[in-house]
Design goal:
Layout lengths: L2 H10 L10 H22 L8 H13 L6 H24 L3 H26 L5 H25 L10 H9 L11 H24 L4 H20 L11
Length: 243
């Protein structure tokens, strides 16, 4: 088995006695959630991301200059909501002394936020405008801000759940062709594929299914990860200790 394939395998089926225990596959699931939610926000809320803040800063610049299809207010709302969500997630992380409990507590909050967003999106129906649009941006931004702060606190290498720029850079710069070991390529590739799968499923659901369907799928996936995280809260293994 190649080094990259072994790395991918140990990410999907990790050593429970390792430093990060069962966290890697859960982080991959949250990366899929990011793709689902950002597909919904970009396609149905007017060219705005709720997880990818790099994109929103760029869109903010586009909107200032008057580029068509970009909203200054929407970009600001997403940035503000994400920041507040990250603040909330950071507060949870700073109080936690058990990584499993940290993940569970944060996911309960995120799942509730995405669920409320789904209910609003399903009730109002597309196209989303006015109060409904900004309410959805706020709820989704809050939820993904919580997720980002939590993944940062858990610090599972190459599984940030919302950012791929450094992940893709690592795939190329640390490859064997570049003189590196290639030992992390499997995990990094899985992270990239997880985001892609979320975006593909989210876009297909929104454009060819029902507008709110990506949020329903994200809520179900989050609920499953929340249940898994709850089962981990009773563990006293070494990986549960804060970094």
């Amino acid at each position: 088995m190649s080094v990259a394939l072994r790395d991918a395998w140990t990410t999907m089926v990790p050593d429970l006695r390792g430093r990060h225990g069962p966290l890697p596959p859960l982080m991959l699931a949250l990366t899929v959630v990011t793709g689902l939610v950002d597909a919904f926000s970009y396609l149905l809320l007017g060219h705005v991301f709720v997880a990818n803040m790099t994109g929103n800063v760029v869109f903010f610049g586009f909107a200032i200059i008057g580029a068509a299809g970009f909203s200054l207010a929407a970009s600001l709302a997403a940035l503000a909501a994400f920041a507040v969500g990250a603040l909330l997630g950071g507060r949870v992380a700073h109080r936690a002394r058990h990584r499993g409990r940290l993940l569970h507590q944060a996911l309960v909050l995120e799942t509730l936020l995405i669920l409320v967003a789904y209910v609003i999106a399903q009730t109002v129906g597309a196209p989303y405008a006015g109060v409904a649009r900004y309410g959805l941006i706020a709820l989704l931004g809050l939820g993904l801000g919580v997720q980002n702060a939590t993944s940062r606190a858990l610090a599972v290498p190459d599984l940030t759940t919302t950012v791929l720029t450094l992940t893709i850079t690592g795939i190329a710069s640390d490859s064997r062709a570049a003189g590196g070991s290639g030992g992390k390529a499997g995990r990094r590739t899985l992270s990239t594929v997880a985001m892609l799968v979320g975006a593909l499923v989210g876009a297909a659901a929104a454009l060819h299914g029902a507008p709110a369907l990506p949020l329903l799928i994200a809520t179900v996936l989050l609920a499953a990860v929340t249940v898994a995280a709850f089962k981990l809260t009773g563990s006293g293994a070494a990986w549960t200790a804060p970094l």
